[in-house]
Amino acid sequence: MALKWGIVGASKISHDFCTALRSQHTAKPHEIHAIASRSKANADEFAQRHDILHAYGSYEELAQNVNIEVVYVAVLNHMHFEVVKMMLEAGKPVVCEKPFAMNHNQAKELISLAKKENLFLMEGLWTRFFPVYRHFSAALTRNAFGDIREVYVKHGFCGSDSARIVRKDMGGGIVLDIGCYAIQLVVLVFQEAPKSIKAEGKINSNGIDLFFQADLEFSKGRRAYITCSGLEALENQSTIISTKGPICMPTYWCPSHYIANGQLHEWRLPITADNWNYTNSIGLIYEADHVFECIRAGQTISEIVPPTDTLLIAQIQDEIRKQIGVQYDCDESL
């Protein structure tokens, strides 16, 4: 039986997610049961485009729909906490787009609430579900790469004209927008909190970061070097230095291949005629199918994006923001 999804937010990523759900390439059956937007007109237009039965002009209406089995939250960053909390309090399992919350305190409260209510809750780090990452993660587990000494990530695009990036009241900033991709890779590789973080960045007149560099030190002298920019395109890949040779992953946040010690590991993504807003968005099918498996199995957490990783990512983001001087109204003290 198809998993009934409720979609909160008629955003670009919501369009891509729904397009993926309706794709013939999903391994599990999915149904988009409802869409909610703050604008009924936007919800109606989105529903017509994606053949969705119910369209709501408020998030509260979707929360009250008893037929929805899981909610996908893809609103602006500053609204994640409020909307996810609303859905959990209404008894709904939730997948929340990255960044999971504005800070560690918010993330911790939401995860505690989900645990209390015995509900599934997962950060939508779609990266982790790509076949490349599943293979890479398994190789890490069996120590196929030897000892990893350093991780380098460079990720950048021209986003200085995007309101959701540059405005503080929308939860903008590069640390939250794409920094999470780089940080999640570092967390996956080293599986521990850094001993120290040194960060610097560039902030705009709104007090929002458009660029940052971070040097993270881990146990046994291991290090990670992250560069993220919303001012210019960068190499957009990760390079990992291990005792058995380098590991290179182009387009590391949504990859189709990686090269380890000169050997190519490739999983070609399905080719579709659909219109997508973002690179390799067909890969959202892997996240959706994983959520199907978790919900049908009665699980409340994902072993691929566990809450411990979500909390550590948020903790690292908080520290980087603190050092470069970015603080939101919801930050109690960083």
TrEMBL record:
<feature type="domain" description="Gfo/Idh/MocA-like oxidoreductase N-terminal">
    <location>
        <begin position="3"/>
        <end position="124"/>
    </location>
</feature>
<dbReference type="Pfam" id="PF22725">
    <property type="entry name" value="GFO_IDH_MocA_C3"/>
</dbReference>
<dbReference type="InterPro" id="IPR036291">
    <property type="entry name" value="NAD(P)-bd_dom_sf"/>
</dbReference>
<dbReference type="GO" id="GO:0000166">
    <property type="term" value="F:nucleotide binding"/>
</dbReference>
<keyword id="KW-0560">Oxidoreductase</keyword>
<protein>
    <recommendedName>
        <fullName>Trans-1,2-dihydrobenzene-1,2-diol dehydrogenase</fullName>
        <ecNumber>1.1.1.179</ecNumber>
        <ecNumber>1.3.1.20</ecNumber>
    </recommendedName>
</protein>
<dbReference type="InterPro" id="IPR000683">
    <property type="entry name" value="Gfo/Idh/MocA-like_OxRdtase_N"/>
</dbReference>
<dbReference type="InterPro" id="IPR055170">
    <property type="entry name" value="GFO_IDH_MocA-like_dom"/>
</dbReference>
<dbReference type="GO" id="GO:0047115">
    <property type="term" value="F:trans-1,2-dihydrobenzene-1,2-diol dehydrogenase activity"/>
</dbReference>
<comment type="similarity">
    <text>Belongs to the Gfo/Idh/MocA family.</text>
</comment>
<feature type="domain" description="GFO/IDH/MocA-like oxidoreductase">
    <location>
        <begin position="134"/>
        <end position="245"/>
    </location>
</feature>
<dbReference type="InterPro" id="IPR050984">
    <property type="entry name" value="Gfo/Idh/MocA_domain"/>
</dbReference>
<dbReference type="Pfam" id="PF01408">
    <property type="entry name" value="GFO_IDH_MocA"/>
</dbReference>
<dbReference type="GO" id="GO:0047837">
    <property type="term" value="F:D-xylose 1-dehydrogenase (NADP+) activity"/>
</dbReference>
